[in-house]
Amino acid sequence: MADSLSVAVVGATGAVGQEFLTLLVERRFPFRSLKLLASARSAGKRLAVGDQELVVEELRPDSFAGVDLAFFSAGAGVSREFAPRAVAAGAVVIDNSSAFRMDDTVPLVVPEINPQDLRRHRGIIANPNCSTIILSLPLYALHRAAGVKRVVVSTYQAVSGAGARAMQELEEQLQQVQRGGEIVARILPVASLPHHYPIVHNVIPQVDVFAEDGFTKEEWKMIRETRKIFHAPELQVVATTVRVPVLRSHSESVAVELERPLSVEEAREVFASMPGVVVQDRPEDQVYPMPYFTSGTDPVYVGRIRRDPTVPAGLLFWVVGDQIRKGAALNGLQIAEWMRQEGMI
Amino acid sequence: MADSLSVAVVGATGAVGQEFLTLLVERRFPFRSLKLLASARSAGKRLAVGDQELVVEELRPDSFAGVDLAFFSAGAGVSREFAPRAVAAGAVVIDNSSAFRMDDTVPLVVPEINPQDLRRHRGIIANPNCSTIILSLPLYALHRAAGVKRVVVSTYQAVSGAGARAMQELEEQLQQVQRGGEIVARILPVASLPHHYPIVHNVIPQVDVFAEDGFTKEEWKMIRETRKIFHAPELQVVATTVRVPVLRSHSESVAVELERPLSVEEAREVFASMPGVVVQDRPEDQVYPMPYFTSGTDPVYVGRIRRDPTVPAGLLFWVVGDQIRKGAALNGLQIAEWMRQEGMI
What pLDDT is attached to residue A1? Predict the structure, then answer.
C-alpha cells in the first residue's frame, strides 16, 4: 500500500466529477497527484482543487499510466471503453456509470451496507444509481430489523441527476420565466432523445430512456440494483421515477411491506441507528426532510414515518438526500476510503 | 324549475372562485343574475365576468335572499357558518370546502361516478378534495372493470391547491431567486401554521395540517373521500401528499392492486372509456401527461400505464389534472349542470 495515491477523475468537469474534487480535499483523502480527465472539448479548462488550480487533460487510452485509483463519471459509453484500460494499467476503478453495475463479477457497493463485497473486486467497482443509494440506506435498516418484502417507491428527482447541463437548463428556464419569454428545453428529460420538455412549472415522469414493459431504465435500476446491494434477489421493488424542478437533492415517497410489523417509534430507532441516516420526523413541529435544506450535505434524511394501515406490516416514509453527494461522489469516495482503510489500495 | 338561475359565488376573488366565474360563462350556464360574495376585505373589488364587470359584495347573513344556487369556496369555516343560512334562504349549496364532505347526510359527488347521490341532497352538496377528484376518475374506471382492492398514491401537487396567495408566493419566490435575494416564505405549506418553507427549488411533504397517526388531513381526505364517492367503505387507500413548484396542475403516481388482472392494453381501453379521462400513453414517443401542458384544460390525463410485477394483479399509472378546473370549479359546475338537466334546480 502506497503512502498516498495517484488519483484520476474521469469526467472532472461534470457535476459529479467536480463534487468528487471538492470531497477529496474536504475529507483529506491522501492523494499525491491528481489527474483531471475529460473529453477533448473540456481539455485545457482549469479547475480549482483546494487552493491549487489544475488543468483538465483529454482522456486518452494512455491516460492511466501510473494511476492507482480512477473515479469515472462520464457516462456508460466512456466507462465501457476506458475503465478496462485503466484496470489494465494497474488502477482500481470506481465507476459511477451504469456500465458494469449488473455485471456479476463487479461489486455494487454502498459502504454502509455491503462493504465486504469490495473484497472480491477484479479492478472495477460500481457505484450505484443515485436514487438507489438514497433509498438503500433507510430501506436496508428496515430490512435488517424486520425483513422487507415489497417496496413501492415514487421519486421526486433533482435535475443534477441529468448532469451539469440539466442544472444549467433549469437556471436558464427560471430566467426565461421571469423575462416572460419562451421556455427553451434542450436537455431534459434525456438529452439524446428527440423530445425535450420544460422543467420549470413542470414535473416530468421520465428519468432516463424507456426500457421494457413501459418502465424507464431508472426504474429498473432501482429495482435490480437494490436487490444486488442487499443480496436479496427475491426482494420485490417497484418504482416510478419523476423529475422535479429542484437543483440537487432527490426525494422519495416509499411504502414498504415488512415481514414483521414495526411501530413508528421502533422504525425511528431503526433508522436512527443506521450510519449515514438522520431522522427528521416531528410532524407536530412541521419537521420533515426537504430538498431545499439538504442540498450540499452528506446524510440522507428520513421523515413522515407512518404505519400503513392497508397492509399487515406496512410502513411509509419519505427520504431526501443530495444526489451529487451521497447519491454519487460521496458514496464513490467512501468506497475508496473503506478500501484504503482495509489496505486494499 | 326556473328558466334561469340566480347564482351566488362565495369566495369569488379566490383562485377557485374566479375559475368558477370563467366556467359559468365558458359553459353558458343559464344564470339570470350573479352575486359575487367575499370577505369585507375584498368587498368593492371589480371582477370581469364575460363582458360584464361585477362588484364584489361583502358576505353577510342576508346575502342569500332570492339566490337559487350558491357555490362556496372560501374555506371550511365560512361554509360551516354560511352554507346553512343559504339553504335556509332557499338556495342549493355546492360547497368546495371540506366542511361537510364526510357528513352522511351530504352527497359527495364526482358527476362521472356517482351523480345519483345528488338525488338525496338536503340543500348542501359537497365537492370533493382536488387530489381525490383527479385520482377518482381513472381509479373508478379500474374499479368498475376489475375491482380495486388497494391503492398506494404519492402526489405532486400544484400550489394553486393552497389558494391564490400561494400561487402569488411561488411567482414572488421565482423573482427572488432571479434577484439572488432572500427567499421569503409566508404561506406554504399551510398559511395558518407557524413554519413556512420555500417552494422554489423545493418539494414540501406536507399538504394541509397534520391529523392522526402522522398523516396529513389531505392524506385522510384522499382515503375517506374516495371510499365515500365509490360507495366502497372497504377500499384500501394510502396516500402521501407532497407540494411541488407547479402553478395549477396536480400529478399523482398510483400503484393499484386489482381483484382481477388487466393487461396494459385492457387498462388503456378501460381508462379511455371513462368520461373525463384522456389517455396519453405512448412511452416510445415520450408521450405521458405533464402539468406544464395540462393546466387550463378540463380532462384528467393518464399515462405511464404498466403492469406491477410485484403483486398478482397490480397496475401502475400516472394521472395529471388541473387542480382549479376538474379538481375544484369544473367539478362543482358539472354537479350544477347535472342537477339542472334533471330538473333539480
Answer: 56
Domain ranges of chain B: 5-128+328-341, 132-323
Considering the domain B132-323, what is its CATH architecture? 2-Layer Sandwich (3.30)
Closest chain A residue by Cα to residue B210? A283
Place A2 in a pLDDT band, splitting at 50, 70 and 90.
low
How far, in Å, are A56, A59, B77, B98, B130 from residue A78 at the CA level? 16, 9, 61, 55, 47
| 8 Å CB contact of A246 and B202 | yes
A143 catalytic residue (yes or no): no
User: Is A290 in the B-facing interface, judged by CB distances under 8 Å?
Assistant: yes
Of A195, A246, A309, the CB nearest to B203: A246
CA A194 to chain B, closest CA, distance in angstroms equals 9
Scanning A155-194 for CB atoms below 8 A from B yields 156, 174-175, 177-178, 189, 193-194
The arithmetic mean of pLDDT across residues B150-158, rounded, is 98
CB–CB of A254/A135 below 8 Å? Answer: yes
| ipTM rounded to 2 decimals | 0.96
Helix axes A15-26, A330-341, angle to 10 degrees: 40
Interface check for A321 against chain B (CB to CB < 8 A): the answer is no
User: How does DSSP assign B99-158, residue by residue?
Assistant: SSTT-TTS-B--TTT-GGGGGG-SSEEEPPPHHHHHHHHHHHHHHHHH-EEEEEEEEEB-
pLDDT tens, residue by residue, B163-205:
999 999 999 999 999 998 899 999 999 999 999 999 999 999 9
β-strand partners of B210: B216
Second CATH level (architecture) for the domain B5-128+328-341: 3-Layer(aba) Sandwich (3.40)
Residue A314 has pLDDT above 80, yes or no: yes
> Min CA distance, A264 vs chain B (Å)?
9
DSSP classification of residue A161? G
